[in-house]
Amino acid sequence: MFKIKGFWLKQRVNSSAPKVFVGHVNVKELFKYSTVDVITKDRTGIQRLLIPGRVKKIVKFFEDTDNQSNIIPNSITVSIEKPIDTTSTDNELCFICDNNEKFIKIIDGQHRIEGMNECSEEMEVLLTAFIEPSPEEKAFQFIVINNKSHKVPTLHVKSLIANFSVIEDTLQKRLNNVGISFSHVKDVDLVDNEDDSPLKDFVLWPNNPEGLINITSIEVCFKYIQDRIPECRDDDALKRDVFYQIWKGIKLTYPTLWDKGLQINHLFDKSVFIVLTVQLTDNTFSYCDNKREFTGDDITIFDNNIFTDSTKAYLKDFPIDFWTVEWSKKGLDTSAGRNLITRGIQQVKDNLRNQEDELLKDNILI
Fold it and tell me: Quick check: helix, strand or coil at residue 341?
């Protein structure tokens, strides 16, 4: 039988806040019956992947012979996935279960549990247990605990918010109310998951560890599109449409570069991704000006598929080799590096204009 000794706590008596059980438990017993919800492609978890280095530090913290008084007094926050009568006044929770039953989910403290379990010493740990909380409640508690104290990587929090803002609309409101806002996360989530997105399944974040595109580069591109096209500032659908059109044009020009198994593919490098999106956004304005001048038609950037058409025209005959050969220049994720990429692309465009046989000849990046 597994027991947790402690007491019931209703922190906010006159509210709908959940009642929790606060107690202490043997770490090795807790480890036996608990598991961690890790964010994976199925998007159901809330936790980041375990970092072995952090576990080792915790083991060292306790097994340091010069500091045998070391303790970690912080409470582990868990979810008990079994129905329990929260009106009870008992001072312990008792569970009859087999060794394979993982009915406790770690909301916060997975590294502490792993590290303390690896120690030879038997230890007790403080515990705050939510009883069958909703997925939204677990996500909220994880984000608030970690965002207000030891910072979880922003990328992980963005992934988590994206997952639960779709499932539970109230999560974003609750986070906003406690001063945590990632309102732009929805855009990145849609880029990675919408069927009409040319970059579906290509965003690299905990929701998609096999992706190729840095999440920050997408956010930078959206910001540029909003700055360049004022109408996009209050219209998220228009902003995404411009972005999708540009990358649809790139995909139509280089379909083979959407093979994730390519050894070298600069197209999705953070700096290249940003430079291309910026250049192709700007180019569409020139494309419309030229079309109006030579055809007399009243063409605007809001015409159907205009960004896709201008992208295809800009990249016409641009050699795919430019994106798949080894570049001699490294460390291009700087303003100076992006300037080099811009100049490298322009040099190839100039060579195309001059009809040179060796289009990549003497290119500054190669």
Answer: helix
Residue with tokens 């929701």: 207
Which residues are CB-contacts of 68 (< 8 A; sequence separation ≥ 6)?
none
DSSP structural state of residue 258: G
Query: With left for phi above 0 and alpha for psi between -120 and 50, is residue 43 left, alpha or beta?
Result: left
Give the mean model confidence (pLDDT) for residues 90-107. Answer: 85
| Residue 227 identity | D
SS3 314: helix
Q: So what's the pLDDT on residue 167?
A: 44
Write the CA distances from 129 to 9, 74, 106, 139, 315, integer angstroms: 10, 13, 9, 14, 57
Sheet holding 92-95, edge to edge: 34-36, 104-108, 76-80, 124-131, 20-26, 2-9, 92-95
- The distance from CA 208 to its chain's CA centroid, rounded to whole angstroms, is 8
- Spatial separation of the C-alpha atoms in residues 350 and 87, rounded to whole Å: 77
In angstroms, rounded to a whole number, what is the distance separating the alpha carbons of residues 142 and 76? 11
Supply 48's token pair: 């980041």
Give yes or no for a contact between 136 and 171, defined as CB atoms under 8 angstroms apart. yes
Q: Which of 206, 191, 194 is nearest to 268 (CA)?
A: 191
**What pLDDT digit, counting tens, does each position of 117-176 carry?**
999 889 999 999 999 988 888 888 887 777 654 445 555 555 655 555 544 456 656 555
Q: Are 128 and 78 in contact (CB under 8 A)?
A: yes
The pLDDT value recorded for residue 150 is 46
Mean pLDDT over each residue of the chain, to the nearest integer? 84
- Alpha-carbon gap, residue 161 to 186, rounded angstroms: 8
